[in-house]
Amino acid sequence: MKYILIVEDEPDIQELLRTYLEDAGYKTVTAGDGVEALALFGTRPFDLVLLDLMLPKIDGFSVCELIRQQSQVPVLMLTALDGEEQQLRGFGMDIDDYVTKPFSMPVLLEKIRVILRRRGGAGEESRRLAYRDLSLDLDSREALLAGRPLELTAREFELLHTFLSAPGRVFTREMLLAKLWGYDFYGDERVVDSHIKNLRRKLGRDYIETVRGVGYRAVKEDR
Ligand code: CA
After folding, report:
1. Cross-strand partners of 135
2. In Å, what is the CA distance from 128 to each residue of 61, 118, 131, 144, 180?
3. Residue 156, helix vs strand vs coil
4. Mean pLDDT computed over 152-177
5. What are the backbone dihedrals phi and psi of residue 31, each rounded to the nearest 5 degrees, phi first?
6. Is-cis flag, bond preceding 11, omega within 30?
7. Cystine design at 142: which of 44, 137, 153, 199 (Cβ 3.0–4.6 Å)?
8. Ligand 1 centroid to 24 CA: how many Å?
9. Cα–Cα distances in Å, from 223 out to 130, 132, 133, 167, 220?
């Protein structure tokens, strides 16, 4: 079963998309603006996001950017005007494809099929991240160390995920706070340090390095 997040503010178009995709055998979740889209995106794994460009509150560009910070889910953009595609590329948007409104439903459906086929391969492979003897399953959110399950809290898992997605890159406490606790977190940056400390203890290995005065990073693998 493939889940599609439909982000569209026009009720008629949203309903049309929902009905059509459900008839085609997809499960859908609908959002009417960018804020709702981001909230719903965190509630379950999606196989594809159908994203309208012009949205209230947060536009499609920003929604796509924020989704990309946490996921490589395929994004199919809905644009109102021909020529916006060039803008999308210009902005360096990491989208999989786009359709221009008004679009034909069969064309849209075919594009969705192509993207899912291209992305899915056999269909059910899980998204994994491997680093040394660590393996993270990004769907089940299970972490294995030398083949054994690690008991991590949600934030510890996210910390590890963040570091391992870019070994060698330094993450400041501010970046980690913003990513894991949200920008409106009000409190002490030392909360990051205590989570790192717990994570290190659970790993039992010095995979996470302190960059003095800056932040933390995963040790690069070739060292
Ligand atoms: Ca719109």
Report:
1. 130, 144
2. 27, 17, 10, 11, 20
3. helix
4. 90
5. -130, 145
6. no
7. 137
8. 23
9. 16, 11, 15, 11, 6
Question: How many separate helices (H) and strands (E) can be counted in the chain?
Answer: 8, 12
Distance CA 111, CA 214 (A): 44
Reported as half-sphere exposure (CB side, CA atoms, 13 A), residue 114 has a value of 10
pTM over 0.70: no
pLDDT, tens digit, 9 for 90 and up, residues 179-208: 887 756 667 788 899 999 999 999 998 999
Contact by Cβ (8 Å): 64, 77: yes
Q: In b/e form, how buried is each residue of 36-56, taking b as 16+ CB within 10 angstroms?
A: bbbebbeeeebbbbbbbbbbe
CA 36–ligand 1 middle distance (angstroms): 14
Q: How far is the CA of 59 from the centre of ligand 1 (A)?
A: 9
Distance 43 CA to ligand 1 centre (A): 23
Paired tokens of 88: 């999308």
How many Å apart are CA 114 and CA 109, to the nearest integer?
9
Give the Cα separation of 156 and 162 in Å (integer): 10
Dist. CA 152 → ligand 1 center (Å): 40
Closest-CA residue to 157 (of 186, 175, 134): 134
Distance 79 CA to ligand 1 centre (A): 8
pLDDT in tens, 24-42: 999 999 999 999 999 999 8
The CA 57 to ligand 1 mean position distance, Å, reads: 11
Query: How many angstroms separate the CA atoms of 176 and 154, rounded?
Result: 14
